[in-house]
Design a protein that fits this description.
CATH architecture of the largest domain: 3-Layer(aba) Sandwich
Number of domains: 2
Number of strands: 10
CATH superfamily of the largest domain: Uncharacterised protein PF07075, DUF1343
Radius of gyration: 22 Å
Structural class: alpha/beta
Strand order of the largest sheet: 3-4-2-1-5-6-7
Distance between the termini: 37 Å
Strand content: 5-15%
Length: about 400
């Protein structure tokens, strides 16, 4: 009986969701902090960060550096600003923290670090929380910063952070060169499964071999679990409308609606988690989506009135997304089902043709939009995307820092 009890205990333990001990998991920032930022001693430093750039203690990285006597010359902030209070696409000006410390915008007149600022420092550090979807612009900010550092001849350091949805495999169409833009960094799948540090290494190898790059890796990170399974991980909203990890997981399923005439839920309490428009019938749309029998998700009819963005002050019908099993939920397949359903029910109102350039930049290709407009089967679209990922997987088999 004792042996049976032990076996039962082992079996039970195997089904407990993995959660790493707080003493084991550390952000790249924590790793640097643990030895007093020794690698930065005596150097003049610039830091790309925002209010979500904190350690496991919750203390902002820039304060940790200043407390250790690091010669931090300035901060630079991406889209949404350092305080993460600007909406998507809203230009951000230069500002300051603590009333005097300068914060230069990387989402204003220019999205690339100013060469005149870079000549005043010895190293530029990047410490931003990405969300795992290619069209999220923090990775584009990183790419432009890498390019600027290569041109200025100064080192670039990435303090790595988890990809919150890393267990989702690489999926969606790989970006085609013709669609490269600030919402699409070169050659990545729509869902890439990589951390910022891993992407930086991949970019250096493919684009910036002359750049001096140092990725400060996390400790205790497991890319096979969602970030909230890491003890010590703090989900601080990296932008105003990605408010929790579940939204980050749903985001790739609904973000392409930004390039349509359907609301993606901005201006409501549940951005990206529900969508609709005044011309949509929520019950009919739910029925169309249910017929796809998508894994790990269910749809509920929803009524909402956006306070901003599309259809401000107008009553909309649509559906709300609820994830029932995050491990089987497939964001890209769900995206395909949503777009196919809306195009079939509302071909004149959805506006894929009217918004084609922006949609194709977000999607990384015109093929996705064309196949949706032609109402190709969901399996055919998913398979086409899978085939586009295969060469990326083969050519970038060494892209992971963590196993």
């Amino acid at each position: 009986m004792k042996h049976l009890s032990f076996i039962a205990l082992v079996i039970f333990t195997l089904f407990i969701p993995l959660r790493l001990d707080a003493a084991e998991f550390r952000y790249g920032l924590d790793v640097l902090d643990s030895d007093g930022f020794r690698m930065l001693a005596g150097k003049r430093v610039g830091l790309i960060a925002n209010a979500a750039s904190v350690g496991t203690s919750g203390e902002p990285g820039y304060r940790l550096m200043l407390r250790h006597g690091i010669r931090l010359k300035f901060l630079m902030a991406p889209e949404h600003g350092f305080s993460i209070d600007r909406e998507a696409g809203q230009m951000v000006g230069d500002t300051s923290v603590t009333g005097s410390f300068p914060v230069y915008s990387l989402y204003g007149a220019s999205k690339k670090p100013d060469p005149l600022l870079l000549i005043s420092i010895d190293v530029l550090i990047f410490d931003l929380q990405d969300v795992g979807t290619r069209c999220y612009t923090y990775i584009s900010t990183m790419r432009l910063a890498m390019e600027a550092c290569r041109e200025a001849g100064i080192p670039f350091v990435v303090l790595d952070r988890p990809n919150p949805i890393a267990p989702v495999p690489a999926s969606g169409f790989v970006l085609e060169p013709s669609e490269e833009s600030f919402v699409g960094v070169a050659g990545l799948p729509f869902l890439h499964g990589m951390t910022a540090g891993e992407i930086a290494r991949w970019l250096q190898k493919s684009r910036y071999p002359e750049l001096s790059l140092n990725v400060v890796a996390m400790q205790g990170y497991n890319r096979h679990v969602f970030a909230d399974q890491l003890s010590g991980f703090r989900f601080i909203a990296p932008s105003p409308n990605i408010r929790d990890l579940e939204t980050a997981l749903i985001y790739p399923a609904t973000v392409l609606l930004e390039a349509t005439d359907v609301s993606e839920g901005r201006g409501t309490d549940d951005p990206f988690r529900m969508f609709g428009a005044p011309f949509v019938d929520g019950v009919v749309l739910k029925g169309a989506l249910d017929r796809y029998r998508l894994p790990g998700v269910e749809f509920q009819p929803a009524l909402f009135t956006p306070a901003s963005s599309k259809f401000t002050g107008r009553r909309c019908q649509g559906v709300r997304i609820r994830i029932t099993d995050r491990n089987s939920f497939d964001p890209f397949r769900t995206s395909v089902a949503i777009l196919l359903s809306l195009q079939k029910l509302y071909p004149g109102e959805l506006g894929l043709g009217r918004h084609a350039p922006f949609f194709d930049q977000l999607a990384g290709t015109s093929r996705y939009r064309t196949m949706v407009m032609k109402q190709r089967p969901i399996g055919e679209i998913v398979e086409a995307a899978r085939r586009s990922v295969q060469p990326f997987d083969a050519d970038s088999s060494d892209r992971f820092l963590y196993h």
